[in-house]
Design a protein that fits this description.
The protein is of the alpha/beta class. The chain contains twelve helices and nine strands. Strands 1-2-4-5-6-7-8-9 form an eight-stranded mixed beta barrel, surrounded by four helices.
């Protein structure tokens, strides 16, 4: 039933994007947002991607859905730019978009259609997929990087990265999977993995961003260990695109009296 409904999501305008702010954990400033896909189903309400992304990949629908996400996110980023907000938007890329060789054209069309500079777009690719297709991934990712698009490895630490390939990838950022953030600072194994990822990123000259920060204790641990970028419910919940400007205004207003 979901598969049949999924085939009609775009024409029925049932897909939605929410945007979760990503912050500098030291100075509390906005460094970007991640576009998060939701499905507004007429019968089941708002459906998280965990319930339909794998189905979309299996049925080949992720190419069209991924294209919609790219175009919509770029259009929103352009609206922010026109409103005077310099915000880079991160978009998750589906396996099929890379495997079938459509991602470069989709990115180009999305940037051109929105009149958005490539520097305002970041593509996030899963660690496992990149490592399983290392040779082809380097070629595709390098072409995107040459275009000026920013690149990140998502859910880093959950796969089996080869360091020989990792340093060849034209990426700028590693994203620590939220499972490690959730289990620390009390789980020593998660602490060790986070320290290792931060050290790896530092040695390779890469940014490191932690996902799923929900407590002040987690934030303090990450900052102490040298991870200065993050996102999570402690910092900000996902919100519709137009709400980002209001959220920034409220933050500015709440900080200003303290600084005065």
């Amino acid at each position: 039933m979901l598969e049949n409904s999924l085939r009609k999501t775009i024409e029925r305008d049932e897909l939605r994007l929410l945007y979760q702010p990503q912050l500098d954990l030291v100075n509390d400033t906005l460094v970007g947002v991640e576009a998060l896909l939701r499905w507004q189903h007429p019968d089941f309400g708002l459906i998280d991607p965990g319930r339909f992304i794998e189905l979309a990949e299996q049925t080949g629908l992720m190419i069209d859905i991924g294209e919609w996400v790219l175009k919509t996110a770029c259009q929103q980023a352009r609206q922010w730019q026109e409103a005077g907000l310099d915000i880079c938007v991160a978009v998750n890329v589906g396996h099929q978009q890379i495997q079938r060789g459509v991602i470069q054209e989709q990115v180009e069309n999305a940037l051109h259609g929105a009149r958005l500079p490539a520097s305002h777009l970041k593509l996030e690719v899963l660690e496992n997929f990149v490592m399983e297709n290392a040779g082809a991934s380097v070629v595709v990712l390098q072409a995107l990087r040459d275009r000026g698009v920013n690149l990140a490895i998502d859910d880093f630490g959950t796969g089996y990265s080869s360091l020989a390939y990792l340093h060849q990838l034209p990426i700028q950022q590693l994203k620590i999977d939220q499972s490690f953030v959730r289990d620390m600072p009390h789980d020593r194994g998660s602490q060790a993995i986070i320290r290792a990822i931060v050290a790896l990123g530092d040695n390779l000259g890469l940014e490191v961003l932690a996902e799923g920060i929900e407590t002040a204790e987690q934030r303090a641990f990450l900052v102490a260990e040298g991870c200065h970028l993050g996102q999570g419910y402690l910092l900000a919940r996902p919100m519709p695109g137009p709400a980002i400007a209001e959220w920034l205004e409220q933050r500015t207003a709440s900080i200003a009296p303290d600084e005065a």
